[in-house]
């Protein structure tokens, strides 16, 4: 299996945004705001619009990273919709927009990221939206885009336990499978080390978040596989571990 990995400097990952409001004019206005924001900031936001909470929940997917909800909708209001979404996803950013502050306390029950009052100018929207995008970029796992036989796939870095060099190939060790590729660690190491990976041996690059336990000689990953720590890489491992978890290693 030949996989090519692509990284785009300066580009944020695609962010799926859902707008839910029973006022079609307002939905379109916010959609236009986001499209303008994309052009001005080189972002990659894809927008879906819904006319009711029922419609949103019926087509809800975890791909949505930001959800913008009007509170005062007929049938299922924005608060009720948000509380249902929170049962499925604790990380998604939820905005509430309304003409009144009366629902503010209820909104925070759904862990609202922003609570904004209509009407909303583009400048006010862009300021708040920029912060939301930055939060998504920092908190969500960046996917690695891979190509195989003219098909494109997304391999989440959070699914990778470690990568092993085997001859002229790489083996991606996931929790329940292994993917063999023709590549070198040098091609991916710089970018993955920005995402909590560290090289602990000439043949192994590990995901620090998937470490179960370790000693000075080896690391045990969450799938119980044991990986040796090279004496030349022990310092790098300790520094990376300290940076991620804030625990100083002796």
UniProtKB/TrEMBL annotation:
Cited Gene3D superfamilies: 3.40.50.2300, LytTr DNA-binding domain
Alphabetical UniProt keywords: DNA-binding, Phosphoprotein
SMART domains xref list: LytTR, REC
GO molecular function: DNA binding; phosphorelay response regulator activity
Location of 4-aspartylphosphate modifications: 70
Listed name of the protein: Stage 0 sporulation protein A homolog
Role of this protein: May play the central regulatory role in sporulation. It may be an element of the effector pathway responsible for the activation of sporulation genes in response to nutritional stress. Spo0A may act in concert with spo0H (a sigma factor) to control the expression of some genes that are critical to the sporulation process.
């Amino acid at each position: 299996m030949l996989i090519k990995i692509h990284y785009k400097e300066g580009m944020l990952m695609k962010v799926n945004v859902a707008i839910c409001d029973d006022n079609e004019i307002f939905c379109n206005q916010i959609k236009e705001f986001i499209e303008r924001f994309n052009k001005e900031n080189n972002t990659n936001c894809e927008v879906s619009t819904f006319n009711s909470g029922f419609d949103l929940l019926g087509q809800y997917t975890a791909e949505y990273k930001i959800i913008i909800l009007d509170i005062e909708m007929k049938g299922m209001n924005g608060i009720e919709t948000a509380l249902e979404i929170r049962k499925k996803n604790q990380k998604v950013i939820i905005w509430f927009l309304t003409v009144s502050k009366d629902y503010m306390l209820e909104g925070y029950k759904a862990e609202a990221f922003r609570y904004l009052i209509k009407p909303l100018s583009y400048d006010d929207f862009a300021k708040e939206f920029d912060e939301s995008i930055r939060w998504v970029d920092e908190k969500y796992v960046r996917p690695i885009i891979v190509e195989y036989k003219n098909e494109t796939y997304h391999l989440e870095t959070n699914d990778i336990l470690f990568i092993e060099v085997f001859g002229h190939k790489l083996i991606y060790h996931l929790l329940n499978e292994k993917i063999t590729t023709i590549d070198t660690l040098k091609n991916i190491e710089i970018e993955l080390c920005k995402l909590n990976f560290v090289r602990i041996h000439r043949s192994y690059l590990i995901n620090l978040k998937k470490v179960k336990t370790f000693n000075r000689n080896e690391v045990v990953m969450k799938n119980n596989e044991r990986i040796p720590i090279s004496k030349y890489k022990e310092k790098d491992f300790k520094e990376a571990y300290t940076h991620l978890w804030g625990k100083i290693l002796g």
